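Progress note, project year one: complex with S-adenosylmethionine.
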Amino acid sequence: MTAPDKNGGADVAAQQHYFATCPKGLEAVLARELRALGIKAVQESIAGCYFECEQLQAYNACYRSRVANRIVLVLLRREFDSGEALLAAASACDWRVHIDAGQTVQIDFNGSNTFIRNAKYGAQLVRDALNDYFRAHGEGRIEIDAANPDVRLYARLFKRRFTLGIDLVGTSLHQRGYRGEGGEAPLKENLAAALLMLCDWPAMAAEGASFVDPFCGSGTLLIEAALQAANIPSGYLRDDWPLLRLLSADHAAWQDLLGAAAVDIENVSLACAINGSDASQAAVDIANRNIERAGLSGLISVSRAGLESLQAANCFAHDNGLLLCNPPYGQRLGEKAGLDALYATLGSVMKDNCTGWQAGILSDDAELGWRVGLRSFRQHKVYNGNIECRLLRYRVSAENALKPRVNIETGETDVAREAAASEKMPAVQLSDNAKMLANRLRKNLRRLKTWLASQTAPSFRVYDADLPEYAVAIDCYSARPLQQFTKTSASASVYKQSQNSNQNPGQLPAHKQD
Ligand SMILES: C[S@@+](CC[C@H](N)C(=O)[O-])C[C@H]1O[C@@H](n2cnc3c(N)ncnc32)[C@H](O)[C@@H]1O
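Model obtained:
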């Protein structure tokens, strides 16, 4: 790595090392985004990606990345065995290339290990390193300003590995600047952007597909969808760029970049329709204010509507589109119980209106995905803050509609249970053979109970062809028993046999689920 020239601005041809941070679970999306920005040497890490590139490419990433939280110019990245060794290495970095001793500094130190037991001590070590460095060069001590520093240093310790660098962006990049109010449980802007990217929204938008969020809340997905569709850089509303306060800043290159990416926001037009709705008028008002702040009024339509009233709504008029949403969570809004019905309604709206569309649902409970009644073709694990979630993706079509599941405790199908609850249809009863199998499953579950309590594995085999009548394997994929029929050659023949015997829908092996 060649250091930038202090007097003549940065040597923009020099390759430098950077680290882009992102929410856990989005590392692969960020890596793809950085590569799409022309950066070749990208390496995924935990909650971020390391990369190597020229300064101008790093500037471009700062201005355009929709997924990153911060971008750090890395000055030191090594393993250490002691605080003294770390201090010595940090004081040997060439700080004067980037920082003037007169500038105020804040040190964001994260992590601890056996020799740096807390972040406060770690930050103190880095501060000492800078003071040692500047003293050795005949300059004064650095001044700390926690609230409004000229330069923010990023220090991260993971086990023995220590990374130290200069934060180029200051305020996290997810704060685009359009969100004045968040409403209830809003998504972070960079998570919303990543969900859209995971659903291939940019390519769909380029083909004129429609976008719908029926739980739009403060409008984050709608706004990010419009920004991606119009190729508006994520940093278009920002005016504070700490990277320009560094001695190594290349102001001319930055101005060129801004000039080339300039957005005439007044005259942006979209080839696709973007529609949101929410049951809450307060949420609709917040979304409209956020859309206005983003400069996107007129490009996004938001209305007050409960999900239940969305049948045959105009927003579904196009035959190609993406429905993406994060319905209320049991943990954060509402109660789990009511969510079963909400997801079932969402499924009906999708099946009745969105044939040929793609859909994505962000949920903290993948089990609820089954309530939609469609087979999900892909699931992505992501984190909404600290909550582990799944983005469940669907292709909406009659072929992907799920048949009803059977509850082995009661013998009812999902459909029958719902219908029984609404007194429209009696619950389906198990046949004698199916009761025998259900009894065996109950017995096996009882036998496995103690072992299960000590396990963290997400799946286990509860039944392995125990009964000659049912030569199938049944795996359980969650706390709630699911039936997964693994067809062996033996099971295939039983499956066929049971179909031939006109098994009714209440009999267990009548359909396969995944
Ligand atoms: C988790 S929030 C969505 C947050 C949104 N993605 C954002 O970034 O602001 C869920 C939203 O669903 C709305 N909601 C709840 N039940 C609804 C229903 N039956 N129909 C339509 N909207 C509903 C709530 O008002 C809330 O704004």
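The radius of gyration is 28 Å.
The CA atoms of residues 355 and 463 lie 37 Å apart.
No further modelling is planned for this target in the current period.
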